[in-house]
Amino acid sequence: MNIVLTAQEMVRIEQMAIADGMDQEMFMQKAGEKVALFVEKKFLRAAKILLLVGKGNKGGDALASGGALLKKKSRVHALTIYSLEESSELNRLMRRRFEEGGGECVSIDVDFSSYDLIVDGLLGTGFQGKLDPLLARVIERANHSRLPILAIDLPSGLHGTTGEGSESAIQATATVALGCPKSGFFLRNGWNCVGELIVEDFGLPQKYIEQAKIFAELPTFSELQNPRLVRNRHKYQAGYVLGYGGSKALSGAPKLASLAALRSGAGIVRLFYPKEAEANMCNSFPELIHAPWEEAAWLHELSRASSIFVGPGLGSSPCMRDWLVKYLSQATQPCVIDADALISDLSCLPKNVVLTPHRGEVLRLLNIKKAPSDEELLALCQNLCDQTGAILVLKGAPTFVLGPQRNFKVIPYGDPRMATAGAGDVLTGMIASFLAQGLSCWHAAILGAVLHARTGEKMAKIKNSCGLIASDLIDGLSWANL
C-alpha cells in the first residue's frame, strides 16, 4: 500500500471496518504473524526475543507476534508493563494465548543484555505525546541496550501524526507499519526513529483504505519508469543535456552534475560556465564538453538541447541573477534549477521545470525568514507548485517530491552518510538526464530521487565507513538499485 495517513485517519478507517463487522481479533492475529515473518527474515540470529508489551492493542499485536514466533521455535519473553486488569480485552486474550503457547512473562528489572532482539509493543496510534515515567524508563533502557529493536506499527513515544516526541521515543532498527505508514514517520525528527521501513497488510480491506484522506504517497514501481532504449539511436537521441554552472570558487559542483547526467544515460553533456571560472574548469573528465559562456554559443546549443540544468556552483551575485532573469525564461526544454539559481523571482521560470532545493534554499525561494513547521512548509511548497506548475524536489531526510494539483511523494530511502557536499549536484544531473531521455518532469523527479537515495544506501554498505562522498554515488549508479 503506497499511501501515507495520519494516525487519526488510520484509526478512523479501521474503526469503520470494525463497525461494519470486521474481526479486530483477526486483524491482531494477522499483524502478529506478519511481524513474526519479518523477524524470521531480517533477524535470523535472534534466538532469544524480548517483547515490550503495553496495555493497549499494540501490546496485543506484540503478544500475537510472540505467539507466532513460539511456533517457529524461538525463545520469547514478554515484559508486561501493566497488569491484566489494566490491559485491553484483546491484550488479555493474546497474553493468555502467549502463555499457553509456552511464552514467559518477565518483570521490569529483567536484564536486557541477555536477549538478541527487542520487539516494541508499548504504545500505538493513540499516543498523544506524554510518556509516564515507567514507560519512559523502559524506552530509555531499550535505546541504551544496543540491541536491534523492531517497532510494531510505529516507534513507541513517537506521535504518529506529527512526529513529535522523537527525542524520547524508541529508536527502532526497523518499523513494520501496519496498513499504511504514518505521517509522523516523515515529519520533524520522526525519520530518526523509524529505521528501515516495511509496510505490511494486516487484513484491512482495500475499500476502507480508498476512503481515507491521504497525507502523502510513496513511489510505486509503475512510476519508476526507465527511459526507453532504441537500438539504433545516436548520442543526441540518447539525450543532450546542456548545463550552466560553476564559479571561480566552486568548480566541482557542475562537474559532478555533468558526470551524473552521463552516468544516468544522457548521450552528450555540454557545460557552460562564467568566464571567471575558466582556470578552475580545465581539469575535467574527458567525456565532458565545456566552454566559457557566450551568448551566441549558448543560444545555438539551447536550440539543440533536450534538457538543461542551471545552478550548481554558480555562486550568488547580481550578475548571476540578471543572467537568470534574462536567459532562463527563454528555455523551452525541461529544466532543472538548483543551488544559487533558486531565486525568489519566479517570473523567469521555464514552463517545464524541476526545482531541487534543500530546506535552507526553499526558504530563500519562498522568501521566508523564519522556518515554519514541517506541515506549513510542505503546504507552502505545494502552493508554489500549484501557482507555477513547477515540480519541486525538497531534498532532505526524507526527500519530498511535490507537483501541481497532486498528492506529494515521500521518498522513504537514503542513508545519513549521503549528507555530504555535492550529493545534491549529483541528483540535479540525474534528473536532467532523465528529462533529456524523454521522461516528464514529474516522473524524472521521482525516478531521480528514488535512484539517488537507493544508490546512497548501497554505496554506504559497500564503503562501510562514514566517508561516503558524492562521486561514490555516481560510481554506484545502476538500475539494479531500484
Strand-residue fraction? 15-25%
Based on CA inertia axes, which overall geometry fits? elongated
Could you name the CATH class of the largest domain? Alpha Beta
CATH topology of the largest domain: UDP-N-acetylmuramoyl-L-alanine:D-glutamate ligase
Oligomer: single chain
Rg of Cα set: 25 Å
Brief synopsis:
With 482 residues, the protein is an alpha/beta fold. It has helices at 7-19, 24-42, 57-71, 89-100, 133-143, 191-194, 206-209, 235-238, 252-263, 278-281, 295-302, 318-327, 359-365, 374-388, 423-436, 441-463, 470-475, and strands spanning 3-4, 48-53, 75-80, 104-106, 117-121, 149-152, 174-178, 196-200, 216-217, 240-244, 268-273, 289-292, 307-310, 335-337, 353-355, 391-394, 399-402, 409-411.
